[in-house]
Structure formats: C-alpha cells, structure tokens
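Forwarding these from the shared drive since the link keeps breaking.
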Amino acid sequence: MSDYPARYWHQLDSGKIQCDLCPRNCKLKEDQRGICFVRKREGDHMVLTTYGRSSGFCVDPVEKKPLNHFYPGTPVLSFGTAGCNLCCKFCQNWDISKSKDIDRLTDQASPEDIAFAAQREGCTSIAVTYNDPVIFLEYVKDVAEACHRRGIKVIAVSAGYINPEPRVEFYSFVDAVNIDLKGFTEKFYKTLASAHLEPVLDTLRYIRHETDVWLEITTLLIPDENDGPEEVTRLSEWVARELGPETPLHFSAFHPDYKMMDKPPTPLKTLIRARNIAMEVGLKYVYTGNVHYTPGDTTFCAHCGETLIIRDWYNINGYYLTPKGACPSCGQKAVGCYEAEPGNWGAHRKPIQIGTFW
C-alpha cells in the first residue's frame, strides 16, 4: 500500500489545493507534489504516497536519537520513509530525506507489523526518524496507536516544522521527541534550510508547555555558519528562559555532506566551547554528539553535580541513579523517564526486515 488519504488540506478558489500540514502551505495543481515530495494532489483530494513504506528498519540505542533522559540504554526500532519538508544544504541523511525515488522504499510494513516487530526484538520504543516524520503524519499516527496497544513508546526525531492544528494531533501520540533546532537566526534558516525560525520556536514552546511529551533538543554546529559564541549564547539563553534550564541540549558535530562539501568537520574544541557557554548560561544538561568526548556524554546531577550516568559514545559505563531515578548523593530526582535499571543494548545496530508486502 502506498497512496493513502492525507489530512490537513483545503480547496482554494483558484482550483488549487493547499496543503496545511506545515508552514510551507504548498498550493498544488493536479498530480503535483508538495516540496516534501510525498504529499500529492490526486483529483480533488490529497494523498500520502509513502504510507506503509520504509527506507529500512534498524534496532539501535535510544541515545542515538539522541535522547539521554528517556529510558537510557534501551533498544529502539527506528525507521523512516522518504522526503522532507525542509531543504537543508547540510543534510546528513540527504540520500533518504532528499530522495524523490519512491520506488526505493522496498521495505513495507503495516502499523501492526511494526509494533509486533518492536515487541519481538525487545524494544522499549520505536522511533520515526531518518527523514522528518511530520510529513507522514497519518502513518505515524497508526503506528503509534498499534505500538501503544503493546506498551511500546513512540519517539519522533523532527525539525518541528509543522502548523499549529496538525501539531496538536501529532504530539498527542508521541511520548518523546528530539527537535533539531538548526540555528538561531532567521538568516540561517532562510539561506541554508529554505525555511523560517519562528515556527520551530513555536513548536518547542508548545511541546514544553502544553504537552507531556519528553523533549530534548539538538543543534548541529556548522563551522562559520551557526557556531559563533554569540549565537550559541542567544540559543542557550532562549532555551533556559522559554523551555527551562533542565531541558537537555545536544551540540552535534557536522561532517561535510550533500551541498556543503566545502565545509570542514566541526572541531571538538567548538563543541566543548558551546557546551561550556550553555552551562554558564544556566542549562543543566548539555551534551556533545558525533565526537568522542566522555564529559559531553555524561549526565551530572543538576543539583549537586554528582555523576549520574557515564557514557562512552552509546555505551553506558556507569549508572548511579537510584531505582526511583534520583541522585544517590543529594536525592534530587533527575528529569526524564527511567526504569529501576538501565537497558543494556549498548552501541550496536541491528538491521531487521519486517517483510510484509501488501
């Protein structure tokens, strides 16, 4: 199955159909697709062309999403489809998110198949990732409902570029999310992502203040684009002020890819500087990603500074939280979602095939 009735659109007086899912508000003629490429006009309605189709399934650690405060050490069944509603020149998954070859999506699975596979593999959660899940909202919703029936959590990895009405529905069936805050200037979003900053900030405020969804944020630091101390300071201050100082923030290293092959990889010292700035501003949980730097992987108590979780890449080498998720020294409860014992999945990946063909 592929073409599936899509939601969030309306007919215009001009005869075109407007997609209302994200702030792009694409206006479509017959057989035309939106910028995301997967939402298409067929006749007098709109369809999702990737329902039930995936670019692949893999079990990997929850820390890879990255989520450091959501059931640490547990395995997650991850999958995505194709397309994206942003046009990032630095996309690290461009072969999937920028793909316009729907036929490459050879892995097919119903929502129940995915939920069953996650349970069979012992996964605590599933994650919709690799490309932005908001563009296949209808599929995510059905998968989430099937997973929740089996007691499996749902994680979304998203850029947060979604309109207010569908946003309410999308985050009603998500348990945890990592939002990719790509930079902190309108210029950055406009020139490097062909998008706008404010809708993403609105999504972050909505998740934090109007839902129970667990939230972490990632910013990919690109040399000479969004890695300057002033921008990092403004971003960190906004997170502390608008979302709270205990909101986890991950600074991740860029590597040359897609349309930015001329840029060098992000130096470790840049990530360490950004982490230090964010902590000086008052953020309590600041991490570094895509680099080997143990202090930037480790979780410390926000109250007394005691070491709580020692990580080496995606491996947990020390876990000192009490069974109730509190610091053993001061008794302060760590923010997030924890079980009495951490998972032991480790750093490995396990590609799997679900193998349903409709």
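-- next protein --
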Amino acid sequence: MSISQIQQLIGGMGVSIQIFTVTLVFSLPLGLIVSFGRMAKNPIICNGAKAYISIMRGTPLMLQLMVVYFGPYYLFGIKIGNSYRLWAVFIGFVINYAAYFAEIYRSGIQSMPAGQYEAAYILGYSRTQTFFKIILPQVIKRILPAMTNEIITLVKDTSLAFTLSVMEMFTVAKALAAKGTMMPFIAAGIFYYVFNLLVAVVMERIEKKLDYYR
C-alpha cells in the first residue's frame, strides 16, 4: 500500500476509536439511568423504560442510525447536512448500547441480597449512600464479564457507521480495496483484532483487581 493509503486508514482508525469512546462515555451512565427507570415502581416510568429497551434491542442498529439521521428532516422538516452524519452516528450508538447496558446493570442490581440494604439502613446509610458506596461497587464486579462482551461487540459495530457514509476504518478499507487490492481489508482485520485484544486485556486486569477475595 502507498503512504497516502496508509494515512487514509489511520484516519479511519481515528474515527472508529472516536465512535467507540463517545459511545462508552455516554451509554454507560445513560444505561444506569434507564435501568433505574426499568426497576421503578411507577408504572409509567417502568413501562416507558421497557418500551425503550424493547425497541432498541428489537430493531437493527443500522435502521436506528438511519432514523436518527433522516428523522429530523422527515418528522420536523429540519434540514440536515454532512456535518450531522457523525453526530447521528454518536447518538444512534449511544441510545442503542444504553439499552443493552441497562439490562446488564439491572441483572446485577437485582442479584444483590436484600440483607445488604437492610444492614446499610441499620448503619444509618441513606438510599443514595447505600447504592453508590455498597451496592454499585459489587454490581460492577458481577457484571464485568457481560460488559466486556458488549464492549467487544461495540468495537466491531463501529463498522456500521458506513450506513451514514461516515469514513471509519472499515469504510475506508472497503473504498481502498475497490482499487484492486486486499491489503486494506487485511489491515482492517488486524486493527479490529488488536483493538479487541486490548479491550479484553484491560477488562481482564480490571476483573483481577476487583477479585479481592482470591
């Protein structure tokens, strides 16, 4: 490959990493908020969270990206430009992954013994203190394997940004491969593998640090 092609691939890598980072930074806290709604006693909030999770998990991410990008124009007549493409990808990925993370959070929170809440109440902890100081650290420890799977999937899903013609790693590789060489695809494969390997290593180290009973 030529130097210009390598530079294009590096640029695509940067966009993929950007999508990955923005999605994680915003979908993790949003997923926690949605999980609270899913467990809420108020039926309106609970059913609303259920419907959101059902739609996000029941429809393709590719379709959701198209709705986020074209929706403002068809629903409200708002003109959209090329500058909105990457923002639409960010929004689509965040709301999609927040739904998956919400269910992971919920499974971890609901797996905690009721006795821990009772003990915290006796010790004088408020509900907020109980959750953030006692429950949440244990929940994070329990849900890390499931979170790792979703984060690895996210790395590969960044390639779906091609739906909105965002030039991330795979889109660039596909465009370069159209010129008659397989090397861009090989480079893309190596990138995704190395990226996922790094994610797996980091998450494994976090698991070991949190596994303080061994």
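Helices lie at 3-38, 43-58, 61-76, 83-110, 114-122, 127-157, 169-177, 183-210. The two ends are 49 Å apart (CA to CA).

- D.
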